[in-house]
Design a protein that fits this description.
about 80% helix, 2 domains
């Protein structure tokens, strides 16, 4: 934790200030709801960053874990009368078990084959949710899902609950990144062969990353279910998985902060497109899919490392230039002083 504070203390302080003041700067209920959705997505994308940026895996089924978590908590609370907090615990455990089973099954796959396997899993889950009508309500979905009571059930209390979870997930991930496990993940990402030769159990670490990512998505899904109060299978398909993937790639796959920044950017772009579609009818429909696809292609072509790592590199270069110029000025002043004394 000390390493995290030393390296990211300033960034984390800025994050906390922005997170705390946002609902007061934007007191409108609509913008608070946007902030809540951003928080829910951030939990998923931080987990996906662990899988893609650290473990070097490609997952196109993240929305499936999101849906499993949402329906787990919704079913337990509406059909069995359990507390929403019990449902939220289960919404982390059950997707984690699914992630463990899937991770063991596809442990030997890489690249496109891994992506196709996770894509197939996503389709299976969405079809299962749709067809298991006695439990999930099928295409009609579920209603009357109870709210989570956290110092009340207002929009503001839900906002701070969700962003409190985001903060815990963020701290856990940053701490993991700077631990022995994080170093093993980075070695795997650079070269699995080299990591294996160093004695790292590549399959074990990949599986761990996949399970943690699934649990994060499940927690977010459970919170989503209790925030919305209703559920249907539509949000848990490929479109949402591609959206999560775009958020991570834009921000920077190797950066936890990048996942958060990418989530914020994509959600605001999405909201902007919705507002524009109200003015320009031709933008209605799947225009967001086209825009996100175009952004993804442009980022991969011109900024493959992502936005946050690029900005960090530029900042470090500018600091290095300043330090070099300062050193040169100091040497020049010293020469002048020596000449003056002689």
């Amino acid at each position: 934790m000390k390493q995290v504070i030393d390296k990211w203390g300033k960034s984390f302080g800025i994050y906390l200030i922005l997170m705390i003041v946002f609902p007061f700067v934007m007191p409108d209920e609509y913008y608070r709801s946007v902030g809540i959705i951003i928080g829910l997505h951030a939990i998923v994308t931080i987990g996906l960053c662990l899988v893609m940026g650290l473990a070097g895996q490609i997952s196109l089924g993240q929305a499936a874990f999101w849906g499993i978590g949402a329906y787990t908590s919704a079913v337990l609370t509406t059909k069995y009368g359990l507390s929403p907090f019990v449902g939220l615990v289960a919404s982390a455990i059950i997707p984690g078990l699914f992630a463990f089973i899937l991770g063991r099954a596809i442990a030997g796959l890489q690249g496109y084959y891994l992506a196709m396997a996770t894509l197939a899993f996503g389709y299976i889950v969405q079809i299962g949710i749709t067809e298991w009508e006695p439990v999930t309500g099928g295409a009609n979905g579920m209603i009357s899902i109870p709210k989570v009571t956290f110092f009340g059930d207002s929009e503001l209390s839900m906002y701070y609950l969700i962003w409190g979870v985001v903060t815990c997930v963020l701290l856990f991930s940053l701490n993991l990144l700077h631990s022995r496990v994080g170093r093993a993940f980075r070695a795997i990402h650079k070269s699995e062969i080299a990591a294996t030769s160093m004695g790292i159990d590549v399959r074990k670490f990949k599986l761990n990353a996949f399970v943690v990512s699934g649990m994060f998505a499940g927690i977010s899904g459970g919170l989503y279910a209790h925030y919305m109060g209703i559920l249907d299978p539509q949000p848990f398909g490929l479109h949402e998985s591609i959206k999560f993937l775009t958020m991570v790639v834009i921000g920077g796959m190797t950066s936890i902060w990048g996942a958060l920044v990418g989530t914020v950017l994509i959600n605001f772009i999405s909201e902007g497109l919705i507002m524009m579609s109200e003015v320009i009818p031709g933008l209605q429909g799947d225009i967001d899919t086209i825009v996100f696809g175009a952004i993804l292609v442009l980022i991969v072509m011109f900024m493959p490392e992502g936005l946050v790592p690029r900005l960090r590199t530029l900042y470090e270069k500018s600091q290095a230039k300043k330090a070099k110029a300062k050193a040169a000025n100091l040497q020049s002043d010293q020469r002048v002083e020596r000449k003056a004394t002689t």
